[in-house]
């Protein structure tokens, strides 16, 4: 075993691996060798003579594998080709490596050789790499830990791209198999993922931004204070010296601005940039054109996607749009894929590696590092002038992009290999996915019947999705929302989640989702990864309920283990599969109404419309004449041929319409390079010519039934035709939403509409009741249910043509009102709304005790996520606040009017027989309010947000704001004197949190969890929460929101301890007979609480709790809402039970507090009761620490916490500090006497937990200095 060479991307990391002993020298010091993996001669060199053969590397890999198998003594046929040799020898070599014996080192070298071959051919075939990973089995982490240093060394020393190849190969493996092997690589190589994504650079950017703002505000505040210094000095007088520098952040102003007293930039939760939208699409929002002068021109696009998304993107100039601008790395400038990994020569252009903006970095002779974006393939002249000219061209393009980004949201190009892009877009996206998802399998390109072609094109599709995903993650921050669009990028969610699981990623499918059954059999290589890939998005939006229903049906069919639920109120499906949960919604796309209305109302457009009608019908047209108008892309999904067939049938069935009606069909030609499109378009044009020849009118000799145009219309001309037409025809076979119908009705509310069920807009209109089948007179448009039913289709034309104008206008206005009320802004806002995601707790009816406790446990989960994110420096996303607010509103709606009194059923029996539990949930409501305030402050732009939150807690002080500030200042002075605590022991309920109405509802708030964890991280070393509550089964671990590792938890008064999941221990001194006796008491009290008159004691306060070594029975709640007669009754009966089971009183002891009865087991020898002090001693003995060394902080609120203070004072009187949350004068005197008996004056009394938490929070953001003199002012 030796150490590998230094990882040149992380110079401090060395990893032990198994390699032959003769290679003990560093790899980087070893000369090139044909026998060593990742160290072979790469290609012909200028200094090598004779030249090295092109297949030298492959031959040497074969030699290495043969040598490995021979050395291992394995049987094999050495005449086999390399691929056959790998296939037969891989399993054998992997088996020897897993044995961990002397042959493992030899086998490891053989595996490296096979890996080298796989990575060299990752662009050609993924078959061998899949077999390689499968052969490693469960040992992949160990293998990557040993192999990756070789890969890194090769890349850094010889300019290969093995790391990129490995990352993509594992990504492709995960996509195809549904596994997550990429995660194993990240586990084996710590820091690889963060380095790949630039995580540290992003975090530094935010922290630096925060520091700059903080210093700027501080500088401004200093200037303001200096101006007022003289007047303030006069007002204070000689005895009015202000107290500064010791108490943390407590301000008299409600705004909470901190005083100028030495704060550092640390805070409870980092200040981050605000949330942005990262929009990712294949098509860009602009068109890029190069003028003859060589300059670049960039224009805003006008496509449907731009219209949909641009309003949201333009709202924030920090938003980012990632798209392919059609500017890709061209194949003639890049060597073949097979050679990309073997290039030592700087004169050879490499495959692009990208910077954090997603732009590739290329090494050039004429420049150092520049952004390489190429638009054409003009031949270059040799020499330095050509290089300089090239650099200027590239930089001029970047200049255009930079200028665009200054005045709008940021547009970042995604640059991919041109060969990949052509196959990804023109091949598999439009040749397979487009027709398949439209359920038009007859238009799937026949080439995909060849498995080899399908596999190659699928690899290109995954590669492009991988590049888009990588660029999106690199450009994003955890607080951003990443919005992916359409069928070109259906795998990006899966790939992004493998890179960063903190991201919120949405996907919207702009086309139908109606794949045929053959898609999952004939094309299963693509089908199943796509189905899995969509489930890896946070949320997915479909155009129609039809499409979502099909998706859910396919998931049920092909992934039977998936859990599917439906929330009717929100109309949301939620699917959980393989540990990931996805929300599915329906969001019909609309248009930006104002843009169309502005042009439609223009007098110039109105005049154009009049001219159009004159063109077809003359100056004095017959009032029965009708102009049908249809406009769409020349695509087989649009049903153009079926429309023409039905239009011909229309005149055949209704010859009286000949000479009267004209159909103006605009079919904008596109995708002529795809055979299926070209053939279809030619057939339609030929059919149009036949119709014009077939139907002629003697009365109107210039009349033509059909005008067929393949050129598009400018928007003003298009809207003019909307105004001129009588009837719009929108009849696709299968389509997404088809916004043309909406454009027509917005511009011209008086027109008729022929609409097929293949259009998503028809489904939307039907769902809205605009085509009720039971009342035909109320149908607002003419439906074509089957575009292949020619007669019915022709009848729809006829019914639209003869419909009276007033009736047509009435129907059109109804459609217009609906479309105007559901415009594009409503669509985008609805999709981006975090409230419909599964991540959010939705409002619910709280009717039973189970509803109440379930809701509180769900808020616990949300609060835990908030705490973890705040502690890790990950931004808190909006859905967390929405969840807590929905939970709070659900509880308030369940309360009695204008109160916080909650009455819920205790069982699911009929309401007349159910017992109602009564709670005062004011504390729970207040805790929700504090958490919502915490989220508001820590997500704000104010750099002093945490200090402001600390001050906001003064609103909850039981006496006054001034009293809050006074107590926090006293607490801050004590923390400053102590400076740092070696030990921190504290109670929970009543000390760090107000008592709850019921223990299952006493979930620790998020703000409290963050403050306590940060205090443990920065101000104390060994921290423990000691409580009388049980550990589990509605115990302290169930209601805590602090992550593991910050605190030890001592339950049952410290008789059982939780250090971490692998370290738990209990007090072993309790005899088994005593535990059995306690069980008998518990059973007897459980039976007692079944009495209807006493049943409510099972859920008020602590209820009935079974601890390790004692029991707790509630007799009152925190709000004193139980009648004294009932409390006396339960106390009397519990005393009777204890007396009956332990008549001598030698084993059990019953103690009463203000709200509870506690039944303890006595110590056999002394008769003492195990208390929290003994619990601390049990912990100290287990972890072997010394309380005599350093300082100790003890916090409590009741007599049961006094033993903790006694133990600490006995061990370290001088170094013990204590805080008591109480307004009880008797308890204060007890604490004071106990401390002063040990000559200790380090005690502070506060009135409520908010003061203690405020003091702890202030302590975490102050400067600490162990050399600071104690008791100094």
UniProtKB/TrEMBL annotation:
SUPFAM superfamilies referenced in this protein's UniProt entry, alphabetically:
HAD-like, UDP-Glycosyltransferase/glycogen phosphorylase
* Gene3D superfamilies reported for this sequence: 1.20.58.1800, 3.30.70.3080, Glycogen Phosphorylase B, HAD superfamily/HAD-like
Gene Ontology annotations of biological process type: trehalose biosynthetic process
Instruction: Name the catalysed reactions.
Output: D-glucose 6-phosphate + UDP-alpha-D-glucose = alpha,alpha-trehalose 6-phosphate + UDP + H(+)
Q: What residue stretches are annotated with the Trehalose-6-phosphate phosphatase C-terminal domain?
A: 984-1252
Q: Which terms in the GO cellular component ontology are assigned?
A: cytosol
Drop me one GO molecular function for this one.
alpha,alpha-trehalose-phosphate synthase (UDP-forming) activity
Location of the region described as Disordered in the Swiss-Prot/TrEMBL record:
1-44, 219-294
Where is composition skewed (Polar residues) in this entry?
1-31, 267-284
Xref: CDD domains: GT20_TPS (cd03788)
**Group of enzyme by EC:** transferase
Q: Which domain of life is it from?
A: Eukaryota
Alphabetically ordered keywords of this record:
Glycosyltransferase, Transferase
Domain Trehalose-6-phosphate phosphatase helical bundle residue range list: 848-953
What InterPro entries does its record include? Glyco_trans_20, HAD-like_sf, HAD_sf, T6PP_C, T6PP_helical
Q: What is its EC number?
A: 2.4.1.15
Q: Where is the composition biased (Low complexity)?
A: 246-257
Q: Which Pfam families match?
A: Glyco_transf_20, T6PP_C, T6PP_N
Q: Which family does it belong to?
A: In the N-terminal section; belongs to the glycosyltransferase 20 family. In the C-terminal section; belongs to the gob-1 trehalose phosphatase family.
Outline what the protein does: Catalyzes the production of trehalose from glucose-6-phosphate and UDP-alpha-D-glucose in a 2 step process.
Protein name, per record: alpha,alpha-trehalose-phosphate synthase (UDP-forming)
- Which organism's genome codes for this protein? Panagrellus redivivus
